[in-house]
Amino acid sequence: MSYKSILVNLNIEGSIVPVVKTASELAQRWNARLIGFCAADTYLPVTGPQGATLAAQVWRQMRDDDERRFKELRKEFEALVAGAVETDWRAAQERPTYALVQAARIADIVVTQATDGAATKDTARRVDPGSAVLQLGRPILVVGSDTEHRVGRKIVVAWKDTREARRAVADAMPLLQAAGDVIVATVASVIDEWARESIGDVVSFLARHGVTARSETVESSRETASLIELIDRHDADLVVSGAYGHSRLREWAFGGMTRSLLDETRLNRFMSS
Predict the structure, then answer these.
(1) Which end of the chain is more exposed for a tag (fewer CB within 10 A), N or C?
(2) What global pTM score does this model have?
(3) Whole-angstrom Cα distance, residue 258 to residue 112?
(4) Using N-to-C axis directions, what is the helix angle for 52-81 and 17-30, rounded to 10°?
C-alpha cells in the first residue's frame, strides 16, 4: 500500500519549510505526486458610505498582494522539493478551510501545519485544523513544531474501538508498514477483557498487513494526559488516532481527546474521521 497523491497545505504567512520538507520526504518514499496548496481570503475593510470607494481600492490591493504571495510560495515550494518528485500547484482566493476541503478530493492524504492547535485564530488566512479534519473525507497529517527527522519511525496508535479509529488505522497503513516500531495503545478508566480482546485484534490485523506491532494498556481516569505521557515515554514521532466530533452539524465541536491532541502542536498527528 502507498499514497499516490499528497496535498500539502501552505499557510500564506509564516515559514513553509518544515511542512514542505515532511511532505516531500513522504512523497519521495512512495514516489507520489506532491501538490502544493495555498488559500487565503481578503478582509473587506469596514467603512461608512463615504469611504466605500477607498475601501474597495484597499480590498483590491490586498487581493493583488495575495496573488503575488501565491506566486512567491509556489517558487519556494518548488525550490524546496527541487525536482525530487512530480509536483503540481493549486491556489485559491477563498476561505482556506473551505478551499482545502474542496481540493482534498485530488489527494490520498493531506499534510498541514497547525501552529495554533485545534482552532486557528484567523480562519480567513489559515486553515482551521479541527474543522478540516472532520470535513476532508481524507486522512490528515498535522506536522508538529518539533519535526526534525523522518516522520513515522516510531508510531503510537491511540486505539478506541470506534469507526473513526478503525478508519485511521486503515488510512495510516502505508506509514505503519514503513515504521520501525508500532505500539497500539488503549487508555481507559477501566481496562476489561473486552478492551484487551479489542486491542489484540488490532495487533493481529496489522500483522496480516506486514506490521509488527505490540500492545500497551493504561488504566487511568486521565485518559488524554496519560496517552500523551505514553507517547512521550516511548519517544514516538507520530500518533495515529480517530477524530471525533460531538455533532456533525457543528464541525468545530470536538471530542476531548481530539482537541487535546490537536493542541499538542509539538507532536506529529495523523487523524481520520
Answers:
(1) N
(2) 0.91
(3) 16
(4) 50
Name the nearest CA neighbour of 23 among 81, 64, 75: 81
Distance set, CA 191 to CA 187, 217, 245 (Å): 8, 7, 24
Q: In Å, how far from its chain's centre is CA 92?
A: 20
Alpha helices in 221-271 (DSSP H): 223-233, 256-263
Query: Tell me: the pLDDT tens digits for 20-46?
Result: 999 999 999 999 999 999 999 987 666
Return the number of other C-beta atoms located less than 10 Å from residue 217's C-beta: 16
Angstrom distance (rounded) from CA 142 to CA 33: 19
Nearest to 202 by CA among 155, 150, 246: 155
Lowest mean pLDDT among 46-50, 80-84, 87-91, 120-124: 46-50
Separation between Cα atoms, residue 51 and residue 153, nearest integer Å: 57
Strand-strand pairing, 238-242 and 269-272 = parallel
Closest listed residue to residue 131, CA positions, set 117, 145, 146: 117
Q: Give per-residue pLDDT as tens, 209-240.
A: 999 999 999 999 998 899 999 999 999 999 99
Angle at 29 between CA 23 and CA 34, to 5 degrees: 40
Q: Which three cell numbers stand for residue 63?
A: 487581493
Cα-only R_g, the chain: 20
Amino acid in position 73: L
Q: Amino acid identity of 178?
A: A
CA–CA separation, 109 and 137 (whole Å): 10
> Within 13 Å and on the Cβ side, how many CA atoms surround 9?
34
